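2.7 Reproducibility. Because tokenized structures are sensitive to small changes in the input, we list the exact sequence used for Pseudouridine synthase, including any N-terminal residues retained from the expression construct. No trimming or masking was applied before prediction.
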Amino acid sequence: MAAQTERLQKVLAQAGVASRRHAETLIEEGHVAVNGEVVTQMGVKVSSKDEVSVDGVPVGREAKRHFLLYKPRGVITAVTDNKKRRVVTDFFEDYSERIYPVGRLDYDTSGLVIMTNDGDLANMLMHPKFEVDKQYVAKVQGIPTRADLLPLTKGIILDHKKISPAKVKILSTDKAKKTAIVELVIHQGMNHQVKKMLQSVGFPVMKLSRERFGNLDLTGLQPGEYREIRPRELQDLKRLANG
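Resulting structure tokens (single pass, no recycling of outputs):
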């Protein structure tokens, strides 16, 4: 009986090397070899009998791990940084698995980041067709009214792209300091999206945090702390992603 085969990028994702999308980039750039031969074309299939390596390092099948990290400000949401700044994977140095972040948070934004070696989950949560709500809380310059924020609830154009309507709520205001705390719930993931959205209606962001991702929140965690995502939470998150 022939060994079952799967696409190379899926095998890399399942092994925790990277998300499936990033795995495709690794293949195209010549980082991946099968049985000692570099592969740069999409569509190659491999079985458990094939030896797969990335930059000469053999790829093994790892147990899937899922973590919820409270990222502090001043930390890069990446696996490495060429400027030697602190990255989110620094919090997981005690783990042998290739843990990496799902999506990104800006350097100066704090909050919830999902860390995993589960490529299927990462691909599901980052793919545009899967609409998982993400809740942000922003401190802004100025005191907006509901009317000021109304365009965000109807959808605006940013960087020549249509932005889906957001749920927006004013949590508090400080008239003396002329600032406000605003909550936004969105499901897209454009670069600097929340900052650009609030800037577009005249309220620059001074401080930003992601408080919730789907059914997951930061309850019980301080910046720099993390915990494993519970099996029931993971099941509910996948259900949300699948609609």
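The radius of gyration is 20 Å.
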